[in-house]
TrEMBL record:
CDD domains: AdoMet_MTases (cd02440). InterPro entries: SAM-dependent_MTases_sf (IPR029063). Signal peptide: none annotated. This is Class I SAM-dependent methyltransferase. It comes from Hymenobacter taeanensis. Keywords: Methyltransferase, S-adenosyl-L-methionine, Transferase. GO terms for molecular function: methyltransferase activity. One of its GO terms (biological process) is methylation.
Length: 244
């Protein structure tokens, strides 16, 4: 999740721990500044390979070498990759999530935000950012910062595999025209708050980057951009590779 989301409170982590302890109906409530509140079942973070969206299965098939799974949640992607023989380090800002991953058998787990310098001491062939994982960067400025920072994470020839979405459809009027505040922040910057039972976390930023924006930012940061797949809900999977 976002670097600022769960440092003092940990509603996501506590929901995941509750599910891990047998509370099958544990559910997070997600509030945002662009949509009505939505329930997010903790079970979603525990899905098996065939419960995952096709974009995620494609991403797992495209992994190579040593993998860094950022925003790993309950470790469903890391566990699948481990079962295929990959060496995976799974990272999340949520202490509860990292505890759940350890209990579930993820071999290498760390509780860090995405900029923690401890992560740069090793190099990875694949940096994996699923579940709209580009959003971890938070804002447009954060995206530019992260793409530069990721140079320190990648081994020679390494790749970032990430998913994101174009949420412009949220701003369509009844005639299908897009209505933006051109003087405001980028329309894909969203503010979220999570709550589990009576525990509310801090508000955090999440960015949904449309493909053109991501391509422009990534190329400016020295990456070659390859769009691998998309679905019918404006979500896409992209591969970013450092240019030689």
């Amino acid at each position: 999740m976002s670097p600022s989301a769960l440092t003092s409170q940990d509603p996501l982590g506590h929901a995941l721990l509750a599910y891990q302890r047998g509370q099958q109906n544990a559910t997070i409530t997600v509030y945002s500044n662009v949509a009505d509140e939505e329930p997010l079942p903790a079970a979603y973070f525990f899905r098996t390979l065939w419960e995952m969206p096709e974009l995620e299965r494609t991403a797992l098939n495209e992994c190579r070498g040593r993998v860094l799974d950022l925003g790993a949640g309950a470790g469903c992607h890391a566990l699948e990759l481990q079962s295929r023989g990959f060496e995976v380090k799974a990272v999340d800002i949520s202490p509860g999530a990292t505890q759940v991953m350890q209990e579930r058998g993820v071999g290498q787990v760390a509780c860090h935000d995405i900029y923690d310098q401890a992560l740069t001491q090793e190099k990875y062939d694949t940096v994996l950012m699923l579940m709209n994982g580009i959003g971890l960067a938070g804002t447009l400025e954060g995206l530019e910062r992260f793409l530069q920072h990721a140079h320190q994470l990648l081994a020679p020839g390494g790749q970032i595999l990430a998913t994101s979405s174009d949420i412009s459809y949220l701003y369509e009027d009844e005639d299908g025209a897009l209505v933006f505040d051109l003087n405001g922040p980028y329309y894909g910057e969203v503010e979220y708050t999570m709550q589990y039972e009576n525990e509310a976390g801090a508000t955090f930023h999440w960015i949904f980057a449309d493909p053109s924006l991501l391509q422009n930012c990534a190329e400016a940061a020295g990456y070659q951009v390859e769009f691998l797949d998309e679905d019918d809900q404006q979500q896409y999977l992209v591969r970013l590779t450092l240019k030689g």
